[in-house]
Design a protein that fits this description.
- By secondary structure, the protein is of the alpha/beta class.
- It contains 16 helices and 24 strands.
- The strands form 5 sheets. An 8-stranded mixed β-sheet has the order 2-1-11-10-12-13-14-15. Strands 7-6-5-3-4-8-9 form a 7-stranded mixed β-sheet.
- Strand 3 (66-70), helix 3 (75-86) and strand 4 (90-93) form a beta-alpha-beta unit.
- The mean pLDDT is 95.
- Residues 185-186, 232, 302-305, 324-326, 328-329, 333, 359, 416-418, 430, 433, 527 line the site of adenosine monophosphate.
């Protein structure tokens, strides 16, 4: 016997319909590339998206076409997503921080038909346009007055396209399993790979993300997604906020401490989401100018592990709750969020801290396990670490144009490439990326844990551990430090000694870095994370000082 309920397809465009109908007056605020702050409502965004759908059809685009966006978080980018999916086409977010060759590879691999771009990236596209045979045209997200002189051809003005239409348009009817959006992995090893979200997976992801123990967004919230729409679907916020009618504040191209503070303060933002490097900049700005955050209630931090110092500062100094989250492009991206369970409200600050340093627990519909290298499931004791695997209706099944390659295990789990523990309460903690873990004498040293403790030292702005070959131990940890501005490292031995003394007792003796080196800048990936591959390249000729090689570590 079959159920007899309506089979309403799960399509993302319904989210904007709902926002316009029930939260039509709620605002979307954007800092534009042109400089000014733009304000509109969900009702206006809904109309403008439908007008843009009409013009995309007139430009010859149709169901199944892939349309790229190369843009910051603004209302125009948001409208583009809904306009593209509304004609049954597929949005493909391009990360402008990638090298030009990688962009060329990705655009050609996806066979993008059109590119909708911010003014910022016109020169970038002009430089590569002749290498993009599948791209039939460009739309520049600006008005007629700001249209640049450009070699891009054919080229259209976003605002003029919208002005020419009347918005009398119904989103096309689609199967909920139709492709909705594409995002490529950052490709730290090998070429980037395409992850194709469906309408169904995006809608389910959004419903889950809006759960009370997850993002807990409501119509009363004002959310500032600093996390770019080109980074893992802006963690789903471009769908999650309209689904509940939360006011959106979009930072455009400016993500420095001062610009973010201005928006947080003026727009009375209650929740925000970003990677740790962004928060580091904001915290430095707040400290330097003795500012407070009276409106902000919660920050969602993910993409890289959150250091203890960051949780402490937000929660103690600014009374802002930190929700640590983990996910990846392949998981839409939500995997876990670290919200406390019943019974934990009475924890001491230190007990809460120990939980919050973990990446959290999965909501319903996500299943996690850790396994040994043979695929055998390991215990959830909070100590044993293994390969983290994940399964669920918004987790990748295959990569774009690699449909015959099996990336799931026999139980349907996807190997995340992360190494983690899971404790008896279900809280998962990432120890490392599998390729970043330091293997010393057959044991594993967690680079993340040492880095997180190290950045608590007052002289350290950023810290990274890499494994360096060692004749006896296989590998030993080298600590690479970007000092805070103004720190005197003219006698490095003194600072090194001080950092080692700081680490002592906080990590196991055999985890202590064998040497510390200082750098003028830290390389970051396109997603704002410390780029270990670049550091490994930079230090490939590093040799341990003789005294360290002679040290037998107490054996
Ligand atoms: P991306 O697909 O670029 O978002 O990268 C996903 C990867 O980022 C994950 O597989 C993790 O290695 C890392 N990552 C994401 N969130 C966290 C977190 N909270 N703590 C540690 N690593 C994280």
């Amino acid at each position: 016997m079959l159920g007899q309920m309506q089979k309403t397809p799960l399509l993302v465009n319904g989210i904007l319909d709902y926002a316009a109908l029930y939260h039509g007056e709620r605002e979307i605020i954007s800092r534009l590339v042109e400089g000014e702050i733009h304000r509109e409502t969900y009702a206006q965004a809904h109309l403008r998206a439908r007008k843009l759908s009409q013009s995309l059809l007139k430009l010859g685009l149709t169901q199944g076409d892939i349309i790229a966006t190369l843009a910051w978080n603004t209302h125009r980018h948001l409208e583009s997503w809904y306009a593209i999916t509304g004609i049954g086409a597929v949005y493909h977010t391009l990360n402008p921080r990638l090298f030009a060759e990688q962009l060329v590879y990705i655009i050609n691999h996806a066979a993008d038909k059109f590119i909708i771009t911010d003014l910022t990236f016109v020169p970038l596209l002009e430089a590569i346009a002749d290498k993009l045979p599948t791209v039939k045209g460009f739309i520049i997200m600006t008005d007629e007055a700001h249209m640049p002189q450009t070699k891009l051809d054919p080229v259209y003005c976003f605002e003029s396209l919208i002005e020419a239409e009347n918005g009398d348009f119904d989103w096309v009817a689609l199967d909920e399993n139709a492709a909705c959006g594409i995002c490529y992995t950052s490709g730290t090893t090998g070429q980037p790979k395409g992850v194709v979200y469906s309408h169904r997976s995006n809608v389910i992801h959004t419903l889950v993300a809006n759960g009370a123990d997850v993002f807990a967004l409501t119509s009363r919230a004002t959310i500032l997604p600093v996390v770019p729409m080109f980074h893992a679907n802006s963690w789903g916020i471009a769908f999650a906020a309209p689904m509940v009618g939360a006011k959106m504040v979009l930072p455009g191209p400016k993500m420095d401490g001062e610009s973010l503070y201005e928006l947080l303060d003026k727009e009375k933002v209650t929740m925000s989401a970003a990677v740790p490097t962004i928060w580091l900049m904001l915290l430095q700005h707040l400290e330097a100018h003795k500012l407070s955050l009276p409106h902000l209630q919660r920050v969602l931090i993910g993409g890289a592990a959150v250091p203890r110092m960051m949780i402490e500062k937000f929660e103690k100094d600014y009374k802002v709750e930190v929700d640590h989250a983990w996910g990846m492009t392949e998981t839409s991206p939500l995997g876990t969020v670290c919200t406390l369970k019943a019974g934990m409200e009475n924890y001491s600050f230190e007990e809460k801290m120990q939980t919050k340093l973990k990446q959290g627990r999965p909501p319903y519909l996500i299943w996690l396990k850790i396994t040994d290298p043979d695929g055998k499931t390991l215990p959830r004791d909070g100590k044993t670490f293994g390969n983290l695997k994940i399964k669920g209706p918004f987790i990748l099944e295959t990569y774009l144009r690699e449909e015959n390659e099996i990336v799931l295990d026999e139980e349907g789990f996807f190997d995340t490439g992360d190494i983690a523990t899971i404790d008896p309460e279900g809280y998962m903690q990432i120890t490392d990326r599998a390729k970043d873990i330091v293997k010393s004498g057959g044991e594993w040293i967690s680079s993340i844990e040492i880095e997180n403790i190290a950045v608590g030292h007052a002289d350290i702005a950023e810290a990274a551990i890499i494994g360096i070959a060692h004749p006896k131990w296989g590998e030993r940890p080298l600590l690479i430090v970007l000092p805070r501005e103004g720190v005197d490292i003219s006698t490095p031995e003194k600072v090194q000694k001080d950092i080692l003394a700081y680490l002592e007792g906080k990590i196991a003796k055999w985890w202590m870095p064998d040497d510390i080196v200082f750098v003028d800048s830290m390389p970051h990936t396109a997603a704002g994370k410390i780029q270990k591959t670049a550091l490994r390249e930079q230090f490939k000729d590093y040799q341990w000082p003789p005294a360290i090689l002679a040290d037998d570590k107490g054996e």
